[in-house]
């Protein structure tokens, strides 16, 4: 374990502050602050912090660590004020949280928290977070309370996650083919499309497109604070010269190894450099699922006409509604849907939608064995199976997404 200070100053002015209800509750934080900074840090209460940060003396601070536990959940507004005051003074914010709900944490990260470290502090984690916030480069500078990139790219892409509500419902199939259709939608003025595989454990977008997996993906994901447009583009592979793909990492990694702040940065980086950002989501709900939902313009949920999908839909609906999350962004897509001549099947679809209280807006037919075969070949359906009924539906979906987007862009200009 390294105990050498990561920040050194002579004579030691106060460069950082802890902010909490009572710092004695977080004794490990005291220890780690001491080993990182020696004596050059101070402590503030929630009551005093915002006022102090607004004073000119506070400008000498490089960062603050705000420590919270579940008891502070009622006090989030005050914490938000402190974050806003820190941001206004260009002071970095590290959030330390024990048993804080993901919703609360996410809110604080969106409001400008630069890093999050769980409490009890894992060994060396605070030192690493400090190093990261102090080396964040200007392209990832926060502004106006929201972590935002300086627009290195000139785009404002549409973010479209695809999430299978049960395993094997065809989420990856749709994400890959939708991304490819979008990349080919207008040969005269082809939109730039990026496909991001966030299924870090079992992601197969690379398999569907026969792309290798790269070590640089993990490097980029685990240090998103240092990511710039160049390192992001370098982690991408291209398929058919048209589609950019961020594959999942070579090795399986824990889904929660990547933080909501990391995901926010990756999506934002993709958004400013591409017209469409299609995201293949893991079916498990994780800490950053909400991050993706909030960044999404439209969120496709794949279901099938079966019990698992029905039950998971209800669960998801309840979870989102209880947290006041935007359930209305979700568009349900029924995969392997009965054909229109199958009257019995059609009435089952109708009953499913009614009993779940959702509308099922898109029906994808079963495309037969060639769907799997074309995936095994590593090619999108459009290549070689252009007439497949499933491919035709996906193309229709891509067209409608593109039309809606072009219309919105035209409105924005007018
Ligand atoms: N409409 C369809 N017609 C025929 N085959 C399909 C269809 N949709 C998906 N498949 C096939 O079903 C299999 C599972 O699909 P896919 O990998 O997209 O599921 P997933 O939701 O991403 O699963 P996972 O939970 O493993 O991520 C694949 O072999 C795919 O080619
Ligand atoms: Mg998948």
Number of helices: 15
Write out the strand line-up for the largest beta sheet, numbering strands in chain order. 8-9-7-10-6-11-12-13
- The 3D shape can be described as elongated
CATH topology of the largest domain: Rossmann fold
In CATH, what is the class of the largest domain? Alpha Beta
- Each distinct ligand: adenosine-5'-triphosphate, magnesium ion
Q: Distance N terminus to C terminus?
A: 59 Å
- Major sheet details: 8 strands, mixed
Low-pLDDT windows of residues: 1-5, 137-152
Estimate what percentage of residues fall within beta strands. Answer: 15-25%
The CATH level-2 architecture of the largest domain is identified as 3-Layer(aba) Sandwich
Indicate how many domains the architecture comprises.
2
- How many whole angstroms does the radius of gyration measure? 23 Å
Helix and strand string, N-terminal first?
EHEHEHEHEHEHEHHHEEHEHEHEHEHH
The count of DSSP E runs of length 2 or more, i.e. the number of strands, is: 13
CATH homologous superfamily title of the largest domain: P-loop containing nucleotide triphosphate hydrolases
Percentage of residues in helical conformation: 40-55%
Structural class category: alpha/beta
Mean pLDDT: 89
